[in-house]
Structure formats: structure tokens, C-alpha cells
Amino acid sequence: MARFLFTMLLSDDLGLPTRLVPIARMLADRGHDVAVFNPLPAPASLIEDAGLKSLPMPARVLPDAGSDLAGVGSAWDVEELFGALFAREDFIREATALHVDLVRDFAPDVVVDSFSLFGCMAARALKIPLASVLQGNFHPASDGFLGWKGPRPEGLVTAAPAVNKVLAEYGLAPVERAVELISGDLSLVVGTPETDPVAADATASWVGPIVWQRGDATLPDWVAALDRSKPVLWVYSGNPRYADAPTPVDSIVVIRAAIAALADTSAQVVLTTGYQEVPAEIGALPENFHHAAYLPGRAMAERSDLMIHHGGHSSVMTGLSTGTPAVIVPTMTERQSNARHLAALGAGEIVIPSATADGEKQISTADFSAAVNRVLREASYRASARRVAESMKQYGGAPQAADLIEQFAHATVR
Prior knowledge:
By secondary structure, the chain is α/β, with parallel strands linked by helices. The chain contains 15 helices and 15 strands. Helix 12 links the parallel strand 12 and strand 13. Helix 5 (about 90-105) crosses helix 6, helix 10 crosses helix 11 (about 315-320) and helix 11 packs across helix 14. The protein is globular. The chain starts with a strand and ends with a helix.
């Protein structure tokens, strides 16, 4: 049996753990020694729900990252996102050292990563085989988030110069782009070539949708009791507020839009927030809204006539895998990219928010209402979503990913 350590970008939301936890659970069920590292509150709750070993934060104080969250939200691609997120060399150095401590202490045979620059750097520094599980627009061989606009602009911010200084300290070769580091010796892409395109010559394998849901998970009785003669709309905001003060990547706009457009309508609205509380500033929810911090995603999507969400890749995968159409309010360019891929497949609509002077996002209630009504009314959206769901069945999802990672471990571990 092998030892696997799962790492990911440390962010207090469920997108990355949702894709890694099913693979980790499957490998653990096969008798492997598996641990997952993301001790932030929402991911830790999901890891606990899966019954997996969750590693605590190593005892090392990190300096401020110097993040430009507006730059993160508007990034052209991963390279610019990393440049905006990790602006300080001292942070990159200490975050890498923290992950080196983590990997060295657990001593895995393989590191399985999704989007953790520092987990990948640590694996390379310690010469641990690295498997990556990425969405298409994270992969170095993709067009990024805004490739539909044309060629990548020159002069965008990048973390590569600072990253290269730290790589040199570990005796590692420099990279032209920091994004090169997050693609592993084994590279798996969540989704399919039509949902998550990458360059034809990329050394990557698509594994289809991966969505976490415990095998014995069921929806609560109050969901089952919803009136089947009225539409059920599942609103998923992800993390509404990433900090005490507003930030440019918050998704509270999704909740506000849903309340403005759907209160006092015949729709039955189920609001979930990914193990987050609804911000107090929202106030009392309308009578036709029902809130739960977390519900089994696949089951909830199957019960829903429409998903409304922030454009996170795991939300897109959840809806497409169940043939449920969506209206997406993307709250950063990465999510806009995911939304555009879904809309191009005919499985939903996008309503792009605009930023106010204080950095908050807002959308036109009229445009949002029109999109919701159009997707509910026109059968083509659900038909397209179901066609994609059917096409996804040729891929193996988490079992296929686990198989490939097991084979990789067998071939690389001596």
C-alpha cells in the first residue's frame, strides 16, 4: 500500500476539496494511507464529512502575502492570478518552507495536488512524485481565463521571478512561468475535452466530472417535501464573504440577486453556502427561501429545475453531470471562463456583474430575472445539459482518477 498526501490552494471554500476528496476517499477505501491538507473551516468540514485524515497547519508563521484581490478577480490566467495573489518574495519563501515541513513530516509516496503552488514546489524540492488534478483553464496548456478575448497581453504581473529565487534555494531549475509548476508528473483534468479544453499536445488525461457526495448521503426531509408542482431553484453562492470587509472576489452578489429577483415568486429557492453562514447584512430571507449551510451536491442538483451559482468549476461539474441547467453570476474571471464554457454548450446563461466604486458587485435584476425565466421556460437548456451529462459517462470520474494515481504510484515508488 502507498501513502498519499493531498494538497491544494488554501482557500476557505469547497471548489478544490470537492474534486480531491472523492479521490482521496476512494484511495483510503482501497487500503492506502491517505491524508488531506486544508485546515481552513469550510474545507476541514468537508474532509471531516468524508472521514479522512486531516492534517493541521504546521507551526510556522507566514508573513502577509501582499495579495491584490482585485487583480486576482480580474486575472487573465493562472500566471497573472499567482502574480496578484503572491506578491511578496518572503511569503513565497515561507509558504514553500511550510509545505516542505508538511510533506517531509508525512513522508508520502505521492503528492496529489490541485492548484497549490507551494505544495507542488515542496514535492519537487523533496523529489516526491507529483500528480495534479486540475480544471482545464488551470492547466499550463490552456488559453487561461480570458483567451476568448484574443492573444494574452504583454507585461502582465507574474510571480515567476520571486518563485525562481526560492526554487534556486532548493537547487531547482528556474521556470519561465509559475503555472508550469502546478502540472504534475501525472496530470489529470477534471471534465472533458468539450467542458475543459487544453492544447492538443498537452500531456494530460481527462477523467470527467468529480463531485463529492458521501455514499449514504440523502437530502433532508424538508427538501423532499417541496411542492413538485413548483420549480425548485438551487442557489449556491460559495463563500459570500472571504473577510470581515468586502473583497473583490466575494460572491454575496449571487444571494442578493436571487433575493431581488425571486422573493415572493412561485419558485422554491434552496440556498446553500458551502459550510458558511449567510452574512448578517442580508437580513431575514424571504418566505420562499430555505437555507442550509451544506447539502449533498449531486442529490440537490438532481432535485433542482435550475442551479444558480457563482461559476465555480465544481458547481459547473455538479450541474452538468446531473443534466441540470444553470444561470451563472461569475464573481471572478476564472469563474467567468467556466461559465462561458457551460453557456457555449447551451446548458445555461451568464449574467455578468459590474463593480461599484467600493469594489462590491451588482447586477441588473431585470437581466437576471430574464435569464432565470428563459432557462426555466425553454427546454433546450435542459436538453443540452442532459446531452453533456450523457457524454460525460464515457469518463470514469473519481474511480478513474484513483486508478491512474495508483498506477502512477506503482510505477514511480521504489
